[in-house]
Amino acid sequence: MRIAVTGSTGLIGTALVRSLRADGHEVRRLVRHPARGADEVQWDPMRQYVDTDGLRGCEAVVHLAGAGVGDRRWTEAYKKEIRDSRLLGTAAIAEAVASLDVPPRVLVSGSAIGFYGETGDHAVDESTPPGDGFLPSLTVEWEEAALAAEEAGVRTVFARTGLVVSREGGAWGRLFPIFRAGLGGRLGSGRQYWSFIALHDEVAALRHLIDTDSLEGPVNLTAPSPVTNREVTAAMGRVLRRPTLFPVPAAALRVALGDFAEDVIGSQRVLPTRLLESGFRFAFPTIDESIRAALR
Predict the structure, then answer these.
(1) Which residues 6+ apart lie within 8 Å of 90 measured at CB?
(2) At what angle do helices 76-99 and 134-144 cross, to 10 degrees?
(3) How many domains does the chain have?
(4) CB-neighbour burial class of residue 48 (10 A; exposed 0-12, middle 13-18, buried 19+)
(5) Among 250, 260, 244, 232, which Cα is nearest to 68's?
(6) Could you tell me if residue 102 is left (phi over 0), alpha (psi between -120 and 50 degrees) or otherwise beta?
(7) CB-hemisphere CA count at 13 Å for 29?
(8) Banded pLDDT at 252 (limits 50, 70, 90)
(9) How far apart are the first and last CA of the chain?
(10) In this structure, what are the phi and psi dihedrals at residue 217, rounded to the nearest 5 degrees?
C-alpha cells in the first residue's frame, strides 16, 4: 500500500513510518523543503500548498503535523502558532486530498484528547461533547478543518491521542531523565487523571484506523485504564527503581509552563470505547507495561 504521512520526523510519525516500511508499505513523507527523492512530497502548511502530484496513487494519508503542545511555554504568540499549524495544515491536506481525481480511501487526521477539557474523575469517551478552554475549542476547529475531505467522500478518522509513553520525545521523554536521576515526583496534587498510551500501541492503533473501513469520525487513542498522576509517579519509581520524593507544586508549574500548566494539573479520564469496540487489542494496556515497553 502507498501511504502519505505528514509529521514524519516527529515522535509518532517517525515510529509509524518505520513500522509501515518494515511491513513493506511504500511511504511518501510530506516535507517543507523541495523534494529530494521519490519518497518525499513538498508542502507548505502555512501557505496552504501541497504538491498533489506526490499524493497520486496513495490509498491512505496520515496527517500528524503540528507545533508541539508541550514544546514551549504557552504565550499568546505560541498559542497562535499551535492553532495555525493545526488548522492551516489540516485544511491544506484535506483540500489536497479532495482535489484528486482518485482520492485516497482514508484520511487519518491527528487530533487530541484535549477535546474533552477538564473531566475530573468522570470518565468520558467519543460520545462526550467538547469541554471548555483553549484546547477544546482548538480541537473542535482542528477536526472541522478536514471538512473538504469528508465532503469529497473520503473516510476521515480523527485520532484523538492521549499522552504517549516514550523515551524518545513528548512529555514522557522529559520525565524519564528526571525520574532516572531520582528527582521525580507528582505534579500538583497528583490526583489528576492522565490518559496515556504506549508508543507501540499508538502506532498499532493508527494502522488499525487505516485498515478498519467501519471506523470514521473521532476515535480515542488512549489505554483502557487511565491512571492518576500519583499512580504514574509510583509506577515510574517502581519500574526505574528510583525514589519519587520531589513533588512539583502547581504554582511552580504555572510559572514554568504558562497557560499550559492548567492542562498538566488538569484531569482527563478518557476511555477508548470505539477503538475497543472495533476489535483493537492493546499490547501494553497498563501504565507499568507501557513504561517498561518504552525502556526496551
Answers:
(1) 63, 109, 142, 145, 146
(2) 20
(3) 1
(4) middle
(5) 260
(6) beta
(7) 21
(8) low
(9) 29
(10) 75, -160
Hey, which residues does 282 pair with through a beta bridge? Answer: none
Q: CA of 250: how far to CAs of 8, 81, 151, 195, 258, in Å?
A: 34, 25, 44, 19, 11
Hey, what's the cell of 95? 483540500
In the block, residue with C-alpha cell 504514574 = 232
d(CA 170, CA 165): 8
* H-helix or E-strand spanning residue 221: strand 217-221
Q: What are the cell numbers at 114? A: 484535549
Determine the distance from the C-alpha atom of residue 203 to the mean position of all C-alpha atoms in its chain, rounded to a whole number: 10
For the domain that residue 174 is a member of, what is the CATH number?
Answer: 3.40.50.720
277: cell is: 469496540
Q: Which helix (H) or strand (E) holds 41?
A: strand 40-44
Locate 2 and state its grid cell: 502507498
| pLDDT, tens digit, 9 for 90 and up, residues 205-234 | 999 999 999 999 999 999 999 999 999 999
Q: Give dist(CA 171, CA 268) in Å, integer.
A: 15
Domain that holds residue 182: 2-295
Over residues 267-289, the pLDDT tens digits come to: 999 999 999 999 999 999 999 99
Q: Copy the grid coordinates of residue 248.
A: 512539583
Cell of 5: 504521512
Task: Please provide the DSSP assignment of 242-276 as one string.
Answer: ------B-HHHHHHHHBTTHHHHSS--EE--HHHH
DSSP bridge pairs for 158: 109, 218
Please give the model's pTM, rounded to 2 decimal places: 0.94
Cβ neighbours for 38, distance < 8 A, ≥ 6 positions apart? none
DSSP 281: -
Task: Please compute Rg for the chain using Cα positions.
Answer: 19
